[in-house]
Specification:
The chain is mostly helical. The protein has four helices and no strands. The chain is flat and about 45 Å long.
């Protein structure tokens, strides 16, 4: 399996898991969790792909750092917007969003490790 397909499979697995989790929750929090999952996937998927494509290049650290800064900034902005718009219900959206970001960072790390380890060398 190529790294791109491995990463896409991981993204789809995390998104599906978030969807299943949202469906299992009470109706009062279901929409918040689904929103957080969707925001997290839309935010993280391209940033992770960009970082994976840059591994082994001279610009990797700059791209990785910019991606992390982007994630942190967007979490801060989403917090401010969600708190003003949703009040106490904002926590559900933010926890789901950050959970997806962390899960997809793990997918990114596993994909990079599998691609760039010496596992396949003989």
């Amino acid at each position: 399996m190529t790294p791109g397909r491995r990463y896409l499979a991981g993204v789809l697995l995390v998104a599906a898991g978030g969807g299943v989790l949202a469906a299992m929750l009470p109706p009062g929090v279901r929409l918040g969790v689904a929103s957080g999952v969707a925001i997290g996937v839309v935010l993280q998927a391209p940033l992770g792909w960009w970082a994976l494509r840059s591994i082994g290049t001279a610009r990797f650290m700059a791209i990785w750092g910019l991606g992390m800064l982007t994630r942190l900034t967007l979490v801060a902005v989403a917090s401010a917007v969600a708190l003003s718009a949703l009040g106490a219900r904002a926590a559900v959206v933010l926890v789901a969003m950050v959970g997806v970001l962390v899960a997809l960072l793990a997918v990114e790390g596993v994909t990079a490790l599998r691609e760039h380890s010496r596992e396949n060398e003989q």
